[in-house]
Amino acid sequence: MPSPSVGRNSNANDGMSGESLQCSRILIYLSWVLVVLTMPFSFLVCFKVVKEYERAVIFRLGRLMKGGAKGPGIFFILPCIDAYARVDLRTRTYDVPPQEVLTKDSVTVSVDAVVYYRVSNATVSIANVENAHHSTRLLAQTTLRNTMGTRHLHEILSERMTISGSMQIQLDEVTAAWGIKVERVEILPVQLQRAMAAEAEASREARAKVIAAEGEQKASRALREASEIIGDSPAALQLRYLQTLNTISAEKNSTIVFPLPIDMLTYFMKANEQN
């Protein structure tokens, strides 16, 4: 769909002053005379061919010709007064260079992307912007930085498809005025592998610490329950003492120190209290 600026150019053609219109007619007439006088050599200059995937935007005396872009096939131009620009309609791929981005949670990461776009309106892409392809590429870089700057690191790692779709919509809204259609945006995870590995390692360490803490808590509860049971039964305490001696004697140690029986220590403590 032609943009307002293209419409203004067409209106300017209709609203030319009388002198300008007459001058244009004279130049067109002289150009036709030149074509007729130099036939058939003039045909080599006047007839042009554009391929199936190309369109030709023609300017006559600096103004866009009515009828829009020409092609595919043969089209005719007048020498000296007509100029044309070829526009390739095929989809192009732009590999966005890695961008250093500060995420919303203050983490610096390097992110790159691939943008697929094509010219949807040849006339607008020539008349409305100086270099549609260069402008689209610069816009892709700034949009990538701005989009990533509003996301947390975990969102960038887990919601790449959603972010890609959001970037495509943002780019397409702007480039529509340039005659460019953004077809797809892919955020590449290659530059994010270190961040992904670091986050995964941190998650594993956190889970390990939680599991270790839970184990310590359960062990403490078990020891407390065991101490309560042993404290209520002196015989159980003596059996535990004998079991410990048995475990020590089973090991291949050259020197074994046997502690005094607990009952004997208790006897001496009571005798000391009586004295």
TrEMBL record:
InterPro entries: Band-7_stomatin-like, Band_7, Band_7/SPFH_dom_sf, Stomatin_HflK_fam. The chain crosses the membrane at residues 26-50. Pfam families: Band_7. GO terms for cellular component: plasma membrane. It is found in: Membrane. Its main location: membrane. Keywords: Membrane, Transmembrane, Transmembrane helix. This is Band 7 protein. It comes from Pseudolycoriella hygida. The lineage of its organism: Eukaryota, Metazoa, Ecdysozoa, Arthropoda, Hexapoda.
